[in-house]
Amino acid sequence: MYLAVCDDNKEDLNSIISLVDMWQVEHGATLSRRAFQSTVELLESARQERFTVYMLDVMMPGMDGLETAREIRRFDDAAEIVFFSTSPGFAYESYRVRALNYLLKPVEQRALFGMLDQLHLREQQNPEALTLKTSTTIVRVPYAQISFVEVIGKHLYFHLTDGNIREVAGALKNFEAILLPRPEFMRVHRSYIVNMFQVEELSSSGLRTFQGDSLPVSRLFYPQIQKDYMALLFERKGGGK
What we know:
The protein has helices at residues 10-27, 39-49, 65-75, 91-94, 109-125, 173-179, 222-236; strands spanning 2-6, 32-36, 53-57, 80-85, 101-104, 129-133, 138-142, 146-152, 155-160, 165-169, 185-189, 192-195, 199-203, 206-209, 214-215. It is α/β, with parallel strands linked by helices. Strand 9 (155-160) and strand 10 form a beta hairpin.
């Protein structure tokens, strides 16, 4: 999980961060978090880092938590959003942005731990996202948002469907065991693994993604890639078993 916690009240913010850190120590879970006292700073970071969970105070000066959540939903439909407030009066409105939870302040340890337990269990049971460790962040990227993975030297570049690119140190083989068992991911070249659901055109000379990227296809791999690609599309349309 990669949490963004935002509250203009420094004391409340520190209290929640302390609880989050306490939960992480008790569970030994992989978790990273950042704290913000300004929704403007949060949104600037969110457009670059893509947090997996946003924890927002409802009442904040300028852009409040609900407005911030609506802005987040414009560019991130997958992240979880949690609100906290001294009043239950905004709980109904929070569901309009598909909030996971609405916690009353002061936030109790039991309530926060229960929510984090729920998120952690879901992440373990349904790993529909890939955890990447870049030079500055740990981020969860939904598999559906990966267009292709490119290796250049000792670095991997995860090209996402929204145009962003995540750089990770390592070799392509480090992710083969994770990606290739999924039917939509295929190694089309020694330097590329591609999400074939993001392919607009495929031929022996190469492929083009829906994002407009042109990639080479190994002539050695092409016959099997073509066969597997057609089978993948057929199954997606409901023609498979």
